[in-house]
Amino acid sequence: MSNTKFETKAIRTQLNRSENLEHSVPMYVTSSFVFEDAEDMRASFAEEKERNIYSRYSNPNSSEFIEKVCLMEGAEDGFAFASGMAAVFSTLAALLNSGDHVISSRSIFGSTHSLFNNFFPKWNIGHSYFKCGEEDKIEGLITPNTKILYAETPTNPGVDVLDLEYLGKIAKKHQLILIIDNCFASPYLQQPIKFGADLVIHSGTKLMDGQGRVLAGITVGSKELVDKVYRFSRITGPALSPFNAWVLSKSLETLAVRVDRHCENALKLAEFLEGHEKVNWVRYPFLKSHPKHEVAKKQMKAGGCVVAFEVKGGLEAGQKFFNSIKMLSLSANLGDSRSIVTHPASTTHSKLSVEERAETGITDGTVRVSVGLEHIDDIIADIQQALG
Ligand SMILES: *Cc1c(COP(=O)(O)O)cnc(C)c1O
């Protein structure tokens, strides 16, 4: 399987067939597994053989999902979680000790930001942020206790792009563990391990599922680091359910075709908005006007499903636009087959001050669209009438 193309791996990686010779892999909805005899059980618990014991540790459906993502990301091993945040928390908690320090991009998922600010201080784990566009300041933030460099690209909801190759070089030079949350790009568009990432995290809830059905998370990367994450997680219990793993593994079979269409639609929407009189600016990585367009082209296959733009007229105009939307969903999710609009300043990021919002690339009139798989003419028509 390793010398086949991405789409083929996504479809043809599957568990061995049972005696029923099923074509599509069945669900292993079981909490535990049985042993042949006392010796089998002893050897299994002693980890002398690799086999399923209990679904908190491993389950065939999770293993299939993990194997696919490892092949897609070029990773050695992985562990699957009940949500993206379970993956973020468990990965960081498994690797960090009291007194350690993390350097992170400021433009990260809101709950990850809360983790750094509201919970890690309890365990004496500190952090420093760098702003997107100020990557040259990262080295100045390094302390003797810095252990991890953490980032997301493209960022949410500002759709900034960070240079993965540059982050990889800094991490290597200072022996930091580079962790990339690759959820916005999906493994189809971007594989951070190629650029030096040690671990890659995904919320499977977004493009991987792609239909807004299940929560899931996954961490993949080097065997050595994943083993630490696994040891922590098999004890603390954030494992993905077999049902959700089964759904996710099926979803990955169509990831490439779905993401191709998401990107095609998103680029068309971005181009439409760029010429619109009621729009101040549009940010999409594959628009030539994007400040990091060249970096995006170097590390991404296409621009992703998220387009950000600013409606002229600030907060009031942003909310008015939002209220005028007819077909698109008003929701906080993204990477769904249904297009979704959010107005971060009055919703997801309303608790931040104007300055804090500016640091993550959000102005009062910023609108984020997760472009779905409806016909592009209908998506544009809804946005056009709402702008009017
Ligand atoms: C949604 C998201 C998460 C968290 O994932 P959940 O599955 O909602 O827990 C983490 N990082 C990014 C970039 C996300 O978009």
From TrEMBL:
Protein name per its UniProtKB record: O-succinylhomoserine sulfhydrylase
A GO molecular-function descriptor: carbon-sulfur lyase activity
Lineage: Bacteria, Pseudomonadati, Bacteroidota, Flavobacteriia, Flavobacteriales
Top EC class for this record: transferase
Pfam families referenced in this protein's UniProt entry, alphabetically: Cys_Met_Meta_PP
SUPFAM superfamilies the UniProt entry points to: PLP-dependent transferases
GO CC annotation terms, alphabetical: cytoplasm
N6-(pyridoxal phosphate)lysine PTM positions: 206
Catalysed reaction, written as an equation: O-succinyl-L-homoserine + hydrogen sulfide = L-homocysteine + succinate
Stretch forming the signal peptide: none
Keyword Transmembrane: no
One Gene Ontology term from the biological process aspect of the record: 'de novo' L-methionine biosynthetic process
Domain of life: Bacteria
Transmembrane segments: none
InterPro entries (UniProt xref): Cys/Met-Metab_PyrdxlP-dep_enz (IPR000277), O-succ-hSer_sulfhydrylase (IPR006234), PyrdxlP-dep_Trfase (IPR015424), PyrdxlP-dep_Trfase_major (IPR015421), PyrdxlP-dep_Trfase_small (IPR015422)
Task performed by this protein: Catalyzes the formation of L-homocysteine from O-succinyl-L-homoserine (OSHS) and hydrogen sulfide.
UniProt KW keywords: Amino-acid biosynthesis, Aminotransferase, Methionine biosynthesis, Pyridoxal phosphate, Transferase
